[in-house]
Amino acid sequence: MPRASSRKGPTNSTASGNSSAVDLFRAASGKAASKELERIDQLFYSYSSNSCGMIDPEGIESLCSDLEVDHTDVRILMLAWKMQAEKQGYFTLDEWRSGLKGLRVDTTLKLKKALPDLEKEVRRPPNFANFYSFAFRYCLTEEKQKTVDIESICILLDLILGSVFRPQVDLLTQYLKIQSDYKVINMDQWMGFYRFCNEISFPDLSNYDPDLAWPLILDNFVDWLRSDRA
Amino acid sequence: MTKSKKLRKNNVENNVEAMEQGWAIMEEGIAKLKNILEELESQFSSEEYMRLYTTMFNLAGRNNIDDDYICQQLYNNYKESVQAYIMSTVNPSLRDKHDEFMLRELVRRWSDHKVMVKWLSRFLSYLDRYFVVRKKVESVKDLGFSCFRDMAYGEVKHKAKDAVIALINKEREGGQIDRALLKNVLDVFVEMGKGEIEFYTDDFEDAMLKDTAHYYSRKASQWIFQDSCPDYMLKVEECLKTEKNRVSHYLHSSSETKLLEQVENELLVVYANQLLEKETGCRALLRDDKVDELSRMYRLFHNIPKGLEEVAKIFKEHVHSEGLMAIQMIEDATCNKTEKAGGARGEHALMTTFIELHNKYSAYTTGCFCNNAVLHKALKQAFESFCNQVVCGTSNADHLASYCDYILKKGGSEKISDEAIDESMDKIVKLLAYISDKDLFAEFSRKKLSRRLLFDRNVNDDHERLFLTKLKQQCGGQFTSKMEGMVTDLALAKENQNQFHEYLINNNAAIPGMDLTVNVLTTGFWPTYKTCDLRLPAEMVKCVQVFKEHYEAKTKHRKLTWIYSLGTCSINGKFDSKTIELVVGTYQGAVLLLFNDAQRLSYSDIKTQLNFEDDDLMRVLHSLSCSKYKILKKDPDSKFVSPNDYFEFNSKFTDKMRRIRIPLPVVDDRKKVIQDVDNDRRYSIDAALVRIMKGRKILGHQQLILECVEMLSNMFKPDVKVIKKRIEDLLARDYLERDAENPNLYKYVA
Questions:
Q1: CA distance A223 to chain B (A)
Q2: Most confident of the following: A169-173, B546-550, B557-561
Q3: Residue A9: pLDDT band by 50, 70, 90 thresholds?
């Protein structure tokens, strides 16, 4: 609540005719908050499609161009995470609200400016693991779908881990494409990739122990890497 | 006042005087004692004894316990006398002698000293009673002994020790020595301790042990190069025996263990590896079956720490290479020659060889190696290492199953005795323990059992059951339950057959038209057989119909599936020269019966009429037209059946026998069996994993794998990668989940 009042700057369109400071405070925060919500909603409706009442892929496309960000950019994915969006390619009003409120933005410009902060937030350790697993779930489009195809996984790996773990991601995607044991990847394996990048020293792989509970696909990956070297 | 002072003064004066007088008498006694010891005088007379004893007694009686003047004087005088005696007589005599003479002198002097002290302590016994106790000093005897120990023994002990050791070594080198003397000398050492062994240990034993070690170390360093392993071992055994003998004759018994340990250490421990690795060493002994030498080796190495480890290793390697050699020999001899997969004689040679090897080396472990656990383990590991190799293209589980089949068939036709069968079965079960793919063996056995039960006329029920009992004892009930079911089915089949006969008798409408025997098999027990939709000839249809009616009347809720591929029939072939009874399979019979109505049939005719599959039909026609007995003529007369061929009844066929069997060759479904077993294994692993996790709720990855392997070890050895895959599958199916904190921990999901 105090924060709302500290943003008196942008929300100074309210004509405050109230007497006491406390009332001013409360009225300002109440009014400011509701004004903010109004603007957020307005922004939503400016992108949403009338037929389904949500922002659909087209709407997202247009949002992206306004933000001057490519729709395949990882930051859109991060935004989806912030909103805890359930369906890939769509944002509901609730999701939109919670996302933008969380970012404390209510215009496209502010949203664009908030993107670097969002990225920082996501990259912080506890959030990143959360984001990483969200990214997988976000790809499960069908009901009861539990796996994602190799192609999409490779893209996702590149998108999410590529900037931090470039060598691992390059080799892993290469391996995933040429191996034939697995045609799809499940959540457990997906999380395994992340753990692998975090815990295993690369490129020597000296601390990898196949007797531990690493997913079999990673055991095979390490074997392939080691044989490739030899 | 004056009176008592005077009295006391008198008393004191009197005591001193009495002391002087009394001691003088004592001195005479001591001098006499010395002479007795030097054999210059004979024993004390009773009067002399009484005089000495009484004098001392009276003296001591005057003792005033307030100052103990008298007793103290006596005690001191006694001590001085003894010491003087030692200084003047004992030590000089010891000093001027050496070696054996010195030892003899020591023995003599100690013996004398004991006598002297004995007498003196008798005379001074009053002191022991009161004075010694009160003043807490050594008893008269002990004092006497201490003097000897400190003054005489103390001076001479080193020389004595060296002399004894020298004599011991002389004896070791074959010289003759006076053993009694050594025993006496060492008794002196022992007695110095007055009940404690420390003087013996410190002043003699330690040095003797060190010397022994040096002695044998020198010997060993020569022998190890000069002698062969058997000879060296003989020498060691001899040395140990000698040293033990030495102890029993003159060393103190407490030295035995330590002494033998020294010998073993220098002769065996130090050179253990070198000895075993000699050209004439362990490997050679095993190779040449030198049972006695191996027994000796066991006896010797058994006692030294970790002695058997190296022996066990060599033993294991030897057995392992013997196994591999046997395999190689058999592979070369048979597999490259036979055309068909798994020539019969080859397999049996392999198994019989394995059994022989096992007999031989088991005999070693129970005999030469006295049933030692380390050696048993080595044997087990060696067998496991080669019993699981693939030979002649198929695993030993298969070979073993074939061997069982062969034994049971032979037993059935009474070519071997009951005892021989029993023995063979025991051997088979023993070998099975070494094979890790036990479930594969079970499956192959089951298939073969099925053929025996259904086709073999000479099945001996008792033998079959005996074999299953032995298997059950070794591997558990789950292993044999299906096979037991099969045997029971056949036993019941006879019962059912009688019932069927009765039914036929009582039921006029039920006329099969020929002698019909039906075996009803319980599906779960028997291997699965391919069914085919054979269009039976009319004669056979009737049979099936009649039985079906009977069975349905007898039992509801059961479904009958007819497996014609397992049936046999007897058909009379009315050939030109004579009628011959043909014993063939049902498939073959069906084909032959077609020729009752047609002279000449094409392949496709037959196929359509009977609704056969190509691979089955080819086999059947081949057996009737291209094999040993050509019942049908084939046009063209080539070696193999082709879909374009034509067939005719061969009326010209004849044979000297009136009855011939025309078997249908068995399809090699080995690959399918292996495939089925592999599939079953996946389910077994799943079941084991779930069972473990259900019980433990939370378990670490490595622990889970260990317990899974353990649980399944009775049936097969699961591949760790396969287990991992099954775990992943269970994770995906939400039976298990990974712990959030520790990814190496699994939790059971209820």
A1: 13
A2: A169-173
A3: very low
Interface of A with B (CB under 8 A): 146, 186, 188-189, 192, 195, 211-213, 215-216, 219
CA distance A111 to chain B (A): 34
Residue B340 CB coordination number (10 Å): 8
- Name the token pair of A215: 């997913």
Q: Which CATH superfamily is domain A127-229 in?
A: Cullin, PONY binding domain (1.10.238.200)
The answer to whether the CB atoms of B732 and A219 lie below 8 A apart is no
Closest Cβ–Cβ partner in B721, B732, B743 for A213 = B743
pLDDT digits (tens, 9 = 90+) for B168-210: 999 999 999 999 999 999 999 999 988 888 899 999 999 999 9
- So what's the pLDDT on residue B207? 93
Distance CA B213, CA B208 (A): 9
**pTM for the structure as a whole:** 0.74
Return the DSSP state at B612. Answer: -
| CATH 1.10.238.200 domain span(s) along chain A | 127-229
Search chain A and give the residue with CA nearest B742: A213
Q: Where along chain A do the CATH 1.10.238.10 domains lie?
A: 27-123
**Residues sharing a CB contact under 8 Å with residue B365, sequence separation 6 or more, in sequence order:** B371, B372, B375, B376, B379
CA distance B521 to B532: 17
Residue B452: its pLDDT value, please?
86
If one looks up domain A27-123 in CATH, what number appears?
1.10.238.10
pLDDT (0 to 100) of residue B26:
86
B666's tokens:
């068995």
Q: Is the pLDDT of residue B533 over 90?
A: no
- When CB atoms are compared, the residue of A146, A213, A219 closest to B744 is A213
Residue among A198, A216, A220 with most chain B CBs within 10 A, to mutate: A216
Q: Cα B404 to chain center, whole Å?
A: 26
Q: Is B631 in contact with B575 (CB distance < 8 Å)?
A: no
Q: Does B741 touch chain A (CB under 8 A)?
A: no
| C-alpha to C-alpha distance for A84 and A95, rounded to whole angstroms | 7
Is A215's CB within 8 Å of B701's CB? no
Q: Do B732 and A188 touch (CB under 8 A)?
A: yes
Determine, for residues A146 and B725 on separate chains, whether the beta-carbon distance falls below 8 Å: no
